[in-house]
Amino acid sequence: MKVGTDGVLLGAWCSLENFPKTILDIGTGTGIISLMLAQRSSAISIDGVEIDKSAFEQTVDNYENSDWSDRLCCYNASFQKFADESNNQGVKYDLIVSNPPFYKEDYITSNISRNQARFTQFLTFKELIQGVSQILSKSGFFSTIIPFKEESTFVSLAQQNSLFLNRICRVKGNQSSEIKRCLLTFSFNKKETEETNLIIEKSRHNYTKEYVELTNSFYLKM
């Protein structure tokens, strides 16, 4: 899987205000988000969980070749199984992030690895939120990125699991386009939601000041 804008946005935007000691990246793919968080934080332990074996192997290789290899670890398992085992062992995370699958079954292809990464039948929003609620620490944060059209459904599912929306950033590709994505941060603490907006480009490959300020620490050329 190539590095996508969604992962870069989430890795750069998610809150570290609680100075997390333990971080979990669900569906880590190539490891981009967890590597960004290793760069941004001083967390002692950063775990990734990835169901696809080839993606898992690539993540491990990327972890081992990074400057933060001593803090990074990846598990080859479904998140459902990982969450159950972690919950049974009393493991909690101060920050959980996920760029989850969100395409519906109508679009399924013959590529199994791509399907697992992109389609909700392999990890539904309900399963994701339930698992997060089990292994997130009491003062922890859960950050994710989802399609804008799924915003109200996702927020409602989170509330049913005592996770409340603290921050939201609605993302547009350019000034004239529709809102495409929502960056969301939840916690067990119910408070007034901080709402912002982000436009990525002024024109093709001509990025806005706000997007550059958010992400330029992670690009060689920006």
- CATH top level assignment: Alpha Beta
How many distinct helices?
A: 8
Principal-axis shape: globular
In the residues, how many domains can be counted? 1
Rounded to the nearest angstrom, the radius of gyration is 17 Å
Q: Biggest sheet: strands, sense, closure?
A: 9 strands, mixed
Distance between the termini: 22 Å
> SS-based structural class?
alpha/beta
Number of strands: 9
Report helical residue fraction: 25-40%
Low-confidence stretches: 108-120
Could you characterize what this model shows?
With 222 residues, this protein is of the alpha/beta class. The chain has one domain (5-12, 20-218): 3-Layer(aba) Sandwich (Rossmann fold), CATH 3.40.50.150. The protein has eight helices and nine strands. It has a nine-stranded mixed β-sheet with strand order 3-2-1-4-5-7-6-8-9. Strand 8 and strand 9 (206-207) form a beta hairpin. The two termini are 22 Å apart. Residues 108-120 have low confidence and may be disordered.
